[in-house]
Specification:
The complex is a heterodimer of chains A (252) and B (155).
Chain A (H helix, E strand, L loop, with lengths): L5 H17 L4 H14 L3 E8 L2 E7 L5 E7 L7 H16 L4 H12 L7 H18 L7 H22 L2 H21 L6 H9 L5 H12 L3 H26 L3
Antiparallel strand pairs in A: 1-2, 2-3
Chain B lengths: L4 H18 L7 H21 L4 H23 L4 H8 L5 H12 L3 H32 L1 H5 L8
Helix pairs in contact in B: 1-2, 1-4, 2-3, 2-4, 3-4, 3-6, 5-6
Classes of the chains: A mainly alpha (252), B mainly alpha (155).
Pfam families (chain A): ThrE
Family (chain A): Belongs to the ThrE exporter (TC 2.A.79) family.
GO molecular function (chain A): transmembrane transporter activity
Amino acid sequence: MQKYPVADILDVCVEAGRVMLENGAETYRVEDTLYRIAKSYNLVYINVFVVPTALILTVQGEDGQDHTELLRMTDRQTNLEKVSMVNDLSRQLAQRALAPDKVKLKLTNIKNTPRNFSTLQRNLAIAFACGSFPLLFGGTYDDMLPAFIAGGLGHILFEVINDWTNVSFFAEMVASFFIGLLALLFTTSGFGDDVNIIIIGSVMSLVPGMAITNSFRDLMAGHLLAGVAVLAKAFLTAGAIGIGIAMVLTFL
Amino acid sequence: MNLNHLTYFIAALVATFGFGVLYNVPTRTLFASSFAGAIGWIVYYILSFQLELDLFVGVGVAAFLVAYFSQWYARHFKMPVIVFAIPGIIPLVPGGSAYNMMRAFIEGSSEMALMYATETFLISGAIALGLSVNSGLFQVFSSQAFEKRDKRYLP
């Protein structure tokens, strides 16, 4: 016997899916979690379809009526803590089904959780990461400081332009152009050894490593549509970085 | 210039840590994921540059190890695997060959560009293969997952 209206349960599911997708979970994880949540409320004939930009969920209640909800996603960022929190919530629900309004409250709490680190801390961490990449790519100690500066400033510029324009392609292009220019300036003024190593190290903060990895995992889990969509995004990002760097390299 | 393994280890640790902060990994697992990334990179370095095996082999084994550590941590901290795997995989991502490819294209040497493109694809494939093989093995060999299999949603 179902205690809660199906429409409320669907709202909860879609909200959970929205939080997960917005914060960079793989699509197969979102499908799995939504399926579990719906299952814990004793719904039958559950069908979930998730692509990176949309989410469709169809269930059947006990009266034999089908219910469908569709969600269109626009902005995506990466916040793995929120993904992990929704995962915990779905585990709790699997043990004991809570009332949908309580779950909704918990999801709102998760959505309003602030980031663990401030913008300054984040950019500083990225700068340190970029500063250590030259060693991994076969550079010398002299390349570390230029990559630190170029990578940190480049990432700040990327975030600012991305907030302004909401076109990540443009933001990546401008940021990588700026990084290339800085690296070229540094090496021509005798600060740093190898311009290539410095550019590779500093550009790593923009490289779509996560998108590539996620898309391959989706493809291998059999989610061809989602995998190809994320791969296309990764190629677009790589192309943007390439164009930005290319504009600088033509000065060489 | 010769750098010892400890320097590489620390560099990979710092790189993974920075990306963990960017992706807002939960604070108590930051060091765990950095450690996984650093171990993966050291293994890649030893296999591919010191023993001079193929890049594909080195990256594949390293990605497998990162995924193995991530699975282990995921059980220990009760968090999804991606919290550890995504920052941990970052040092292995073929940024260098992708850049070289782009540069070769611009300079007009298409043959070099194709060579680097192949390298980029092989390395990306190796990373994905390492991750997938590991999660496949975990599903087969973990008895808990085996019992629960028919309840899982695997379309």
